[in-house]
Amino acid sequence: MFNALLITKPESGYRCELASLDEAQLPASGDVTVRVEWSTINYKDGLAITGRSPVVRSFPMVPGIDFAGTVTASEHPRWKAGDRVLLNGFGVGETHWGGLAQMARVKGDWLVELPDTLSPREAMAFGTAGYTAMLCVMALQRHWASHDVAPGSGEVLVTGGNGGVGSVAISLLAALGHTVVASTGRPQEAEHLKALGAADVIERASLSEPGKPLQKERWIGVVDSVGSHTLANACASTRYGGAVAACGLAQGMDLPASVAPFILRGVTLYGIDSVMAPMAQREAAWTALAASVNRAQLDRITREISLGEAIGAGSEILAGQVRGRLVVDVNR
Question: pTM for the full model?
Fold first, then answer.
């Protein structure tokens, strides 16, 4: 038996509760069984836990789009008992039972070897949010390299600065020598964001309302996890030849923008997908995270909760009440 969060959809509505399950109930479609040690709460997990959006596609469902742990049994040629692994995406926690549990059974092709220098807890302190932030930074780095843009040659905007993606992106970009400006709806957190490496902090309202198709050029690059008007304004104020990496929709799925930044300033918009990203990109991102980890800053943005507390945390993260990252100790 093992403990897990279980989402059901009875006639009375949508329910997420802590349950005791039998290992025989794990998905038969998986070929690797993992004893989960740590998981985390991302924005998508909040949607799944609360039912605020139809993230979960089949019931019953164990939520949790990522986890880190140790293989206990494997029918996959790459993995054997004792291997340390992690997983992000691939529909886990949406269409396939996920990581907010003490056990998981998944396809071996979805797993990434946990870097030697990262503990399972540290891996989930990054989680999908940190992994996505690194995918964004890598996309910007490739763009800047092709355009001879050097670190420190201009400002880089990070929207949703207090969120998981934003917090990690600030730390990563600042460590690379970039001048980072963080946007947030919680200006009282300015000192926290500066401690992560932000050179300046601006209020979310300056970007979240409808704006002009072209605005004063400011950013050499942008990491955006917000979407909607925020992404449109970020594109409109990106400098000639600059780039924007878009990975989220906290404000909305719409993009009320014009083609002006793209055809008049040569701005590039990169779409960052963490769910189905090719394995080579995943492994490169996790290798880069392991090489660049700042443990003091990672601890600063991380709060630890129990498996049962993850239910309430789902609502907190959707309400914008979570700073940085939540790691879930599934064994308490």
Answer: 0.93
- φ, ψ for residue 229, nearest 5 deg: -60, -30
DSSP annotation of 286 reads: H
Neighbours of 280 (CB within 10 A): 8
Number of H helices, E strands in the chain: 10, 15
Strand partners, 158: 182, 223
The partner residues of 151 in beta bridges, in order of sequence, read: none
The pLDDT value given to residue 12: 79
Distance separating alpha carbons of residues 128 and 44, to the nearest angstrom: 10
| Dihedral angle, C-alpha 282, 288, 291, 297, nearest 10 ° | -100
Exposure string over 164-193, b if 16+ CB within 10 A, otherwise e: bbbbbbbbbbbbbebbbbbbbbbeebbebb
Structural contact between residues 269 and 223, judged by C-beta atoms closer than 8 angstroms: no
Q: Three-state DSSP class for 277?
A: coil
- Domains with residue ranges and CATH for the chain: 2-114+301-329 (3.90.180.10), 128-271 (3.40.50.720)
- Would you give the DSSP letter of residue 25? G
Tell me what the mean pLDDT of segment 135-150 comes to. Answer: 97
Please tell me the predicted confidence (pLDDT) of residue 13: 87
Residue 67 in contact with residue 89, Cβ under 8 Å? no
Please give the full DSSP string across 178-238, using - where no structure is assigned: -EEEEEES-GGGHHHHHHHTEEEEEETHHHHS---SS----EEEEEESSBHHHHHHHHHTE
